[in-house]
Amino acid sequence: MIFHSSFLVLTATTLGSLIHQSVGQAPYAKSYAPAYVQCPPNIEWVRPATGLSKPESAWVQGRKKVVLAALGAYLERLHIPDFNVSNYLGHMHASNFEDVPIMGLAISGGGWASAYTGTGALRALDARLPAAVQHGTGGLLQCMTYMSGLSGGSFPTVSFAVNGFPTADEIVKIWKPTIDRLGANQTTQYAATFTDMFKDLGAKMEAGFSVGTADLYGLIFGYEFTPGVFNVTLSGVVNETKFKNHEMPMPILQVIELTNSAAELYGLKVPVLNDTTYDLTPFEFGAWGGSASSFTPTQYLGTKLKNGVPMNESACVVGFDGAAYAMGMSAAAWNLWAIEAFSNGTEGSFSKAKRSIGSLMNHLQRREEIVPPATITEIDGAFQKALNLSLTEIAYAEIPNPFLGVSSASPYTQTATDLSLVDGSEGGQTIPLWGQIQPARKTSFIVAWEDSNDAHPYEWNNGTNLYNTYLAAKAANLPFPIIPPVSNFISHNYTTKPVFFGCDKKLTTTRDSRAPIVLYLANAPYSSYMNYSAGVNVMSPQQMNDIFVNSFNLVTQGNGTLDAEWPVCLGCAAIERSLEKAGMMTPAQCKSCFKRYCWDGKVGVGSNKTVDLSLVLDPKVGYKDWLNSHMYWNASLSHGNAV
Ligand SMILES: *[C@@H]1O[C@H](CO)[C@@H](O)[C@H](O)[C@H]1NC(C)=O
Ligand SMILES: *[C@@H]1O[C@H](CO)[C@@H](O)[C@H](O)[C@H]1NC(C)=O
Ligand SMILES: *[C@@H]1O[C@H](CO)[C@@H](O)[C@H](O)[C@H]1NC(C)=O
Ligand SMILES: *[C@@H]1O[C@H](CO)[C@@H](O)[C@H](O)[C@H]1NC(C)=O
Ligand SMILES: *[C@@H]1O[C@H](CO)[C@@H](O)[C@H](O)[C@H]1NC(C)=O
Ligand SMILES: *[C@@H]1O[C@H](CO)[C@@H](O)[C@H](O)[C@H]1NC(C)=O
Ligand SMILES: *[C@@H]1O[C@H](CO)[C@@H](O)[C@H](O)[C@H]1NC(C)=O
Ligand SMILES: *[C@@H]1O[C@H](CO)[C@@H](O)[C@H](O)[C@H]1NC(C)=O
Ligand SMILES: *[C@@H]1O[C@H](CO)[C@@H](O)[C@H](O)[C@H]1NC(C)=O
Ligand SMILES: *[C@@H]1O[C@H](CO)[C@@H](O)[C@H](O)[C@H]1NC(C)=O
Ligand SMILES: *[C@@H]1O[C@H](CO)[C@@H](O)[C@H](O)[C@H]1NC(C)=O
Ligand SMILES: *[C@@H]1O[C@H](CO)[C@@H](O)[C@H](O)[C@H]1NC(C)=O
């Protein structure tokens, strides 16, 4: 996350007086503060985490019908030899849609980098883009029931959902990535000054809610990803036309709860590997296990509940789940940024924490400036002066604990007044798979996009996060593919080309077909070196285009030039689990695909060499040559590569 200290034009003292004069008068202040309403009757305020909620279950059933039609069209276009699409569709209908594959897209954390490159991947799967259809990958997006995101991956996940699921090219027009949200000198529909954003925070605080950096950053993200719609909530997605018509995937965000088991550094808490991951969806907020094992309706998040009922029947809360705040919660990594700054980057060895620790200082030295310590201090100072809030009060997203007194919750969570939530990637799983792999969701195929910049120093990816999800799934006894260690990702080039895990059901944690097949796609240079820093938030139209083309080339394997069969292989993996349910044979071409693209279960010696990549489609063009014709980034910065 980059921002430049010069943008903080206000002194903290000015902020303080502004807050006191004019709370409520900022353009969006009234809508950003949640509101109190009379509690509605007949609400199940808290439910145990067994199965899907009734509304999600009904929605998924509706989605399957729409998916089946899209899947039929997609499969017809693939022309898989010896595969009878109508026969397949007939089986799906005959199962009363039970066997229709449930698929998902997961976009990793990694700031604006992952938000933009992941959107490029989504675009290459979209049937609405003629080039994607022409090259055989378009249409898979229309078959997806879930789309999950955390941290930077939450930006597209929320943005597509609350903006009515436009195309990627349309959504870029909404985002206007040429505007710098971290340095706005005036408040418009598309960007705001820090002063005005602090006014919004003041309004929420005056209404009786905790505020902190998750709110501030949520607003910054909101001006880009949900512009002009600060009164739009995540729960409100259920009332959108495309969602009601089951014509878009359901968004899932991930956050992590800090508990008394959290580690502490410089007075700030950091989750340990087993701290509980929470789901935030339009329907519900809660966790499938761990410290909550319960869910509450997202629409009334912020309401003070005790023993599963409102404490005050006249004080239910709506509007707490603003789309902007939802992104702010999912990307609330202030604790790590501050620790990084206070330790001068020396806390890089804190292995349980996410990529940011260590990597931020790498950015500072090697890339562009990123959260310079002075800025951390300035933001903290602004909160202190303007709102009288200390560092520990603003470091986490603090929300009234809906699970107070709930017996299925852990002893800590049963008694905590507020839940302290942080960036979903802080547990070491930067790809938001946890929500999708819960058995209740029955996913059978997941496209995992990773751009978490965790292979230092060149900020590609190395499989660590996917491996961590495998370890966590195994420990929790969740069905998930077995994932080899990082050294094998590097030696097999899984950091540059598509790979499926779990094709063979024996290569899963439960050794049966309950685990989804996971397609791992790591951001890699195909036509452009897009290992730019996670915090670069401004993109020219040319840069954005190059990002999209690079992701397109990766997802389509250079429009099939690397392997003309690739689109068929993708389709094969997408339906493999459902073929088994339908009692249909895996077509011969699919089997040959799986030999090439599925991990075979053999763990080799591997390699730990630095991930330093060249353009897959044009290996002779090294970074420096490429930079000569793409003067985007500061030429003195080394992105490295062997060429
Ligand atoms: C495909 O299956 C359908 C229905 O199951 C059948 O009517 C049709 O003849 C089959 N097509 C071919 C080419 O086998
Ligand atoms: C203020 O921001 C606008 C829009 O981002 C920009 O066009 C203008 O040059 C900026 N003015 C100053 C003085 O920085
Ligand atoms: C949000 O605010 C806009 C503009 O004030 C209004 O038109 C719209 O109906 C509001 N939407 C919701 C969900 O309240
Ligand atoms: C959806 O719309 C209905 C009807 O207007 C309304 O009662 C309900 O509160 C809305 N749901 C959400 C989550 O906003
Ligand atoms: C997390 O793991 C630690 C160390 O293994 C253990 O002491 C602790 O009880 C675990 N916490 C939870 C909530 O499972
Ligand atoms: C309940 O909430 C209402 C509305 O916010 C407030 O006026 C009332 O004082 C509250 N009652 C108690 C007992 O806190
Ligand atoms: C970080 O660097 C600053 C300035 O060089 C120094 O004052 C401070 O003691 C250092 N902190 C740590 C934890 O090393
Ligand atoms: C600021 O907060 C502290 C405790 O958090 C409190 O003691 C103090 O009175 C507050 N100052 C102001 C000016 O409200
Ligand atoms: C892989 O990434 C992890 C997480 O950032 C890092 O700790 C490790 O050193 C990397 N290993 C290689 C070989 O790149
Ligand atoms: C991985 O990529 C490198 C560089 O393109 C190549 O030399 C090597 O043979 C590849 N290894 C595998 C296992 O594909
Ligand atoms: C693949 O097609 C896209 C869309 O037409 C284009 O932008 C891209 O340059 C093509 N890639 C290759 C390797 O030809
Ligand atoms: C790679 O690193 C891992 C973890 O540090 C180590 O266990 C493994 O032996 C290394 N493999 C190679 C080939 O160096």
Automatic annotation (TrEMBL):
It is an enzyme of class 3 (hydrolase). GO terms for molecular function: phosphatidylcholine lysophospholipase activity; phospholipase A2 activity. GO terms for cellular component: cytosol. Belongs to the lysophospholipase family. Pfam families: PLA2_B. It comes from Cladophialophora chaetospira. Residues 1-24 form the signal peptide. Its EC number is 3.1.1.5. The keyword Lipid metabolism applies. Residues 38-604 form the PLA2c domain. It catalyses: a 1-acyl-sn-glycero-3-phosphocholine + H2O = sn-glycerol 3-phosphocholine + a fatty acid + H(+). InterPro entries: Acyl_Trfase/lysoPLipase, LysoPLipase_cat_dom. PROSITE patterns: PLA2C. This is Lysophospholipase. The keyword Glycoprotein applies. GO terms for biological process: glycerophospholipid catabolic process. Keywords: Glycoprotein, Hydrolase, Lipid degradation, Lipid metabolism, Signal.
